[in-house]
């Protein structure tokens, strides 16, 4: 992959983000199972890209439709399934990333009633830990969107090296790994990325640029493995950029009476959350809700028992006073 291509992956994700709406609905059933539905609306590019892929495989079914709105074609992808317990979603084989929004639904039977709880995670993108300038640019699209490229490439290049250090087939001596990381630092400091972006196909290969001075000291499989790792982290950052204008609406329906939740609002029996990338740009965004279905017979029985106990105690006290 040419250095220009890597920069294009990062650059397009920021300056050309998709604008798409995701509606996610969870309906918990009395037996503890739950249905989950994902509905994504937008143009074809936004709906079928990898920034927020729908779950794939069993037990999911997917339907795709279109509608005309303001003389434009709107694509609608709907995926639904019947689930039980905790679920860590699996994306399609062609997806660049695994889905990072696990859910856990529990049903706990008690003496006075049955409790239901839902906890949904949207894993934080850790942008300000990885490349703070990129995070600043996401919040200020009028800023010079090339300032973060050097920082981003340094993170991508050095993190790829650290990953390969965990594999015995690509393990380098610590001194050599540090030398390559230092070289990457000097490389990104020397480059004028605004100029590099306009160079076109004459740009040199990023991986070759970085590894060229050390090729004789590297294992034969290292350049290809390093390229794969660089591609992985480039795609991860690109996907974060694509999420910039996406809007998420989350609806949860629970049996019984809601006793705790961090929902933005409640409309009838529907718990509502509305959020976007800024809410999980760095840290996890967690949706929580809990409800209870009281057992009327047991509550009535408990009231009768308590009443009888009060009467018995009252009688004993009266006799004791006499």
Summarize the structure.
Helix content is 38%, strand content 27%. The chain is of the alpha+beta class and 322 residues long.
Segments where pLDDT lies below 50 for 5+ residues?
11-16, 196-204
The whole-number mean of residue pLDDT values reads 84
**Which descriptor suits the 3D outline?**
elongated
Q: How many domains comprise the coordinates? A: 2
Distance between the termini: 97 Å
Q: Over the alpha carbons, how many angstroms does the gyration radius reach?
A: 27 Å
The percent of residues in helical segments reads 25-40%
User: Strand tally, please?
Assistant: 11
The portion of residues forming beta strands comes to 25-35%
Which structural class do the helices and strands define?
A: alpha+beta
Strand order within the widest beta sheet = 3-4-2-1-7-10-9
* String of helices and strands: HEEHEEEEHHHHHHHEEEEEH
Q: What is the helix tally?
A: 10
Q: What kind of sheet is the major sheet?
A: 7 strands, mixed
Plain-language structure description:
The protein is of the alpha+beta class and 322 residues long. It folds into two domains: 13-127 and 245-298, no CATH class; 134-241, no CATH class. Helix content is 38%, strand content 27%. The strands form two sheets. Strands 3-4-2-1-7-10-9 form a seven-stranded mixed sheet. Strands 5-6-11-8 form a four-stranded antiparallel sheet. Helix 1 (3-15) packs parallel to helix 9 and helix 5 packs antiparallel against helix 6. The protein is elongated, with a radius of gyration of 27 Å.
């Amino acid at each position: 992959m040419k250095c220009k291509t890597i920069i294009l992956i990062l650059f397009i994700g920021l300056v050309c983000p998709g604008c798409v709406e995701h509606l996610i609905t969870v309906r918990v059933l009395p037996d503890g199972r739950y249905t989950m539905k994902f509905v994504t609306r937008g143009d074809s590019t936004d709906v079928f890209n990898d920034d927020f892929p729908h779950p794939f495989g069993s037990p999911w079914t997917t339907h795709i439709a279109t509608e005309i709105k303001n003389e434009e074609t709107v694509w609608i992808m709907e995926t639904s399934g019947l689930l039980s317990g905790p679920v860590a979603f699996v994306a399609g084989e062609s997806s660049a990333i695994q889905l990072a929004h696990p859910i856990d639904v529990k049903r706990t039977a008690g003496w006075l009633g049955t409790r239901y709880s839902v906890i949904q995670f949207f894993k934080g993108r850790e942008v300000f830990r990885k490349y703070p300038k990129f995070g600043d640019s996401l919040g200020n699209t009028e800023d010079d969107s090339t300032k973060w490229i050097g920082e981003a490439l340094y993170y991508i290049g050095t993190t790829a090296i650290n990953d390969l250090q965990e594999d015995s087939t690509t393990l380098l001596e610590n001194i050599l790994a540090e030398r390559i990381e230092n070289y990457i630092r000097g490389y990104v400091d020397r480059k004028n990325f605004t100029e590099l972006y306009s160079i076109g196909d004459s740009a040199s290969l990023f991986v070759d640029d970085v590894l060229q001075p050390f090729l004789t000291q590297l294992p034969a499989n290292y350049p290809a493995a390093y390229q794969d790792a660089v591609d992985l982290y480039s795609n991860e950052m690109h996907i974060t950029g694509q999420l910039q204008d996406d809007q998420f609406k989350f609806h949860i329906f629970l049996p019984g009476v809601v006793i705790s939740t961090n929902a933005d609002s409640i409309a009838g029996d529907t718990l509502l959350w509305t959020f976007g990338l800024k809410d999980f740009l760095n840290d996890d965004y967690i949706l929580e809700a809990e409800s209870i279905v009281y057992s009327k017979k047991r509550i009535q029985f408990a009231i009768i028992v308590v009443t009888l106990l009060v009467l018995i105690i009252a009688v004993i006290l009266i006799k004791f006073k006499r």
